[in-house]
Amino acid sequence: MTTITARRRRGNVLTLAMLAFLIYFLMPLFWLFVASTKTTGDLFSSFGLWFADDFSLLSNVRATLTYGDGVYVRWLLNTLLYAVTSAGGAAALAALGGYGFAKYRFRGDRALFGLVLGSIMVPTTALAIPTYLLFSKVGLVNTPWAIILPSLVSPFGLYLMRVYAQDAIPDSLLEAARIDGAGEFGIFFKVVLRLLMPGVVTVLLFTLVATWNNYFLPLIMLNNPSLYPVTVGLASWSSQSAAGGGATGDLLALVVTGSLLSVVPLVAAFLLLQKYWQSGLTTGGVKQ
Amino acid sequence: MRRARTWTGYLFVAPFLVVFVAMLVVPLAYAAYLSLFKDQLIGGTVFGGLDNYARALTDSRLLDGVWRMARFFLTQVPIMLGLALFFALALDSGVLRLVRLFRLGIYIPYAVPSVVAALMWGYIYGPSFGPLAQLADKLGISSPNLLSGDFALGSLANVVTWEFTGYNMIILYAALRAIPPELYEAAAVDGAGPWRTAWSVKIPAIRSALLLTVIFSLIGSFQLFNEPQLLQRLAPNVIDSSYTPNLYAYSLAFTSQEVNYAAAVSFLIGLVIVIASYTVLLATNRRSKP
Amino acid sequence: MIISKRWLPVLAVLSLGLSACAGSPTTTTTPAAQNAGQADIDKAMTTPTELTFWTWVPQIEKEVALFQKKYPAIKVKVVNAGQGEPQYTKLRTALKAGSGAPDVVQIEFQYIPTFTITGSLLDLRPYGAAALKDKFVDWTWSQVTGDGGEVWAIPQDSGPMGMLYRKDIFDKHGIAVPKTWDEFAAAARKLHAADPGVYLTNLASNQNAVWTGLLWQAGAKPFGTPARDRVTINLNDEHSQKLATYWGGLVKEGVVSTDADFTDQWYQSLNRGKYATWLTAAWAPTFLTTSAKATSGKWRAAPLPQWQAGQQASGNWGGSTSAVTKGTKNPIAAAKFAEFLNTDPESTKMMATQQFLFPPTKALLADPEFVGQKPEFYGGQAVNKEFAAISGTVSTDFQWPPFLDQVVSDWDETVGKALGDKGDVTAALGQWQSRTTTYATNQGFKVESK
Q1: Residue C98: which region, alpha, beta or left (left: phi > 0; alpha: psi -120 to 50)?
Q2: What string of H, E and C letters represents the secondary structure of B9-67?
Q3: How many distinct structural domains can be found in chain B?
Q4: Partner B contacted by A193 (CB < 8 A)
Q5: Which residue did the predictor score with more confidence, C180 or B197?
Q6: CATH code of B133's domain
């Protein structure tokens, strides 16, 4: 009996402590929501963590979506395009490659894999500047490809998939399929891919987050605001609201509301795909 | 048959490797090539050998930035990973309530783009109108300017901690869930309490996951760019163009037009990261050996 | 050999990159291009053409429409690639890359030499630009004119500096509008002593342009380019020292604030009345109307205080031009577009009255419809008239360095930092001078200084 009450008390204390931390992690998001219900004037004059008298969320959302001929919607669609194609491509390449490294032995496989793994440490700027210069020679700068192509490489994704494939695909299954006379690629698409799915989804989510959040690469690659992803767009609004100038007006409220809107899709994706990222991450974290 | 399968291996990894070479190896090689030249407004491009590297090693702005990030790594990362480990153990403890809520709530910031996180925190830090200053005002204390010289690095560390604690927590939590039950049974026989179990069974069992988070955080720290770049506007005198090595490389390439020197600087940043990562790996390997 | 085929594009990219690097542009003086005859111009203006125009002027599509109405064959694509520095960064990388640069681009006066040193701008004389000289206020024209008489751009708007002040605060504390910097300093002390929450002005520690504008007013000549490969840098001469002692002193005394400008906090402070004056430019009156709504009716405009009583001098802060890039495939159409935009009576009037850009043309500065405006925000004062008069007092011989970004970023981290930290501004001048000199030397310039 005593141990149960002790356990319960311990649980209470721990839960309370965790609640305090939870407030820290959710406070900025709560602030963001509250702030996007305010006019620019109220943003400065009312208390930041509670609503002002005017509830302007809807008018802010409308203003955000329609400002500059609806350029914000364009940014969201661009982000979606870049994120989905890059993540899909990266996951496919990583699945093929990870499986190849996991289940086939070939000359130089270890060295190649080591090279890929080591590349995780390459700083983004070291790549972005030469990539920019090379892309501009072949006319890729200021096109969606400038964002998508570099995002197709996910060394960490390859690593995850290799670990996952080693674990999830028993060799006996492959041997059985081969005895049945299936070709190597047939085996991959008919048997292996299904088993790899949780890993693929994890990599997909990883790269989705990475491209959704990408800022540095599009910042230097794109000149044309109608190609911006939402991150660069918001940053440009933010700097425009800072530079002011008579005609820019109430951009600050738009930056805040636009920030809120940009967060919603990813949060929703995370809520919906919980099962996958949790099971997938187990692989990456534990088995090395 | 055996031979054929070897070729199949190549075919499976080829698509990845082709893109890898084109998007990573080639730009890197090009950067290495660029870093050997000097491009001047007057005089054009001349071969300079390792001049750029020599200059970088004595460039106090670069060295200050590296040192700042080293301090950042040594303070922010232990706090962040300490918290992440604590949360993961709490989630795994079996006595915590509302596990799902905590798991999601703490992880959510990872889904927030760093641009948005920096804009948001920049506003929250705002003197006089930011919520923190307002709270301090209500409590009758004067709040310091959180983006002034003494506080800026801490404020930056807070943004990064907020963004990535949940991410690390999930990695560690996933690792904890995968610990084989036999390990616990042994501990239970010994009569170990929850703290002892955590310390002597759970943490050693997820050592490799912990190492992974340390290495990732190390890479992240030394590559810090988005957050300082966006907070720069709010604290231009504190967060200058060489505040982080990555910011410095960017401003060299795009403001100072010293692309070649920037390439050399980027290379050295990469080198610092590689050396630091191996140091961490070696140190932990040695300790794990009896 | 599938692999090697896949490698081909990669190799192509690589070799292209290498050759491009080796053959980097080292353009020297512009060869005097053949003057375009009227026949060439007529032909160019009736041939279907698309021009790309980078600008951050909001709603400039209206003026562009006027141009397209007159020249239906020519289509102008307007792109906002960022305001100021972000745009220059993109422009420079596009120029370096050799693709993606616009035909016509908005460039602020101070950045023109930065882009002419790399041979990136087109001399507009062959397209009849020299004849436009008399339409523009002298100092704006000298700003767009190169050392060899080239016309590098057409002025679009300007920012002669004056002082906006809060009449209500001045009245409340019995402060007269300071005519000299001595009076200004005395007023700063008096005001702050009377009300510690208020500062006579805010000298933003991140705003190099104001510092340079004040240098300009003081008669300094910090930069010069006696030849393409020679540059003079005098950031630590007697004018700068005078400025540093003056402002450094006021800042150290704590009677002048140094908040970063155009930040949320700064807007707040303007609205709350933390600053009793703003040392600013001719575009500011309209700017303030929208960003400090709460203070309507309380502001007035006056010239900058002077170093000597009775003197009339000012500097410039901001203002832009339209320049044509060297790589354009349609130089005539591009040059004519830049000309039209900034000289056509309807277009220029629109910019002055709808986008509220402060005009550089003599015609508008004398136009009653422009200078006669008496906005409520300024208690009915004819502020444009005030600034039109100031525009005539800006000296014509101020020059900019051929690497302005670097100079500005060095200022931020030396003089600006010293202002922000209430440090030693005079010592910071020395650092500014030495950092800029080091950069210039590294870039291959022969540096001269007094």
Answers
A1: left
A2: HHHHHHHHHHHHHHHHHHHHHHHHHHCCEEEECCCEEEECCCHHHHHHHCCHHHHHHHH
A3: 1
A4: no
A5: C180
A6: 1.10.3720.10
Using a CB–CB cutoff of 8 Å, tell me whether A3 touches chain C: no
Element at C324 (helix H, strand E): strand C320-324
Tokens of C137: 């206020």
Question: How would you list the strands of the sheet with C446-448, edge to edge?
Answer: C223-227, C230-233, C446-448
Q: What is the block-wise mean pLDDT of chain A (288 residues), using blocks of 10 residues?
A: 71 91 95 90 80 87 90 95 94 95 90 88 77 86 92 90 88 90 88 88 84 88 91 88 53 90 86 69 46
Beta carbons of B57 and B264 less than 8 angstroms apart: no
The closest CB to that of C82, out of A141, A236, A244, belongs to A236
Give chain A positions within 8 Å (CB) of B11: 100, 185
C83 and A239 within 8 Å at the Cβ level: the answer is yes
Token pair, residue A166, equals 């080693």
Domain span at residue B257 reads: 52-288
Q: pLDDT at position C163, please? A: 97
Within-domain flag for B40: no
Of the residues A125, A189, A203, the best mutation for testing chain B's interface (the one with the most B CB atoms within 10 Å of its CB) is A125
Q: Which CATH architecture has domain A37-278?
A: Orthogonal Bundle (1.10)
The answer to whether the CB of A124 falls within 8 A of the CB of B223 is yes
Which of chain C's residues have a Cβ under 8 Å away from the Cβ of A141?
94, 97, 99-100
3-state SS, C375-420, equals CHHHCCCCHHHHHHHHHCCECCCCCCCCCHHHHHHHHHHHHHHHHH
B271 assigned to some structural domain: yes
Chain-centroid distance of CA A162 in Å reads 21
> What does the domain layout of chain A look like in residue ranges?
1-26, 37-278
The tens digit of pLDDT for each residue in C110-169 reads 999 999 999 999 999 999 999 999 999 999 999 999 989 999 999 999 999 999 999 999
Query: Predicted ipTM?
Result: 0.89
Quick one: how many helices (H) and strands (E) in chain A? Answer: 14, 0
Please report residues of A whose CB lies closer than 8 A to that of B262. 125, 129
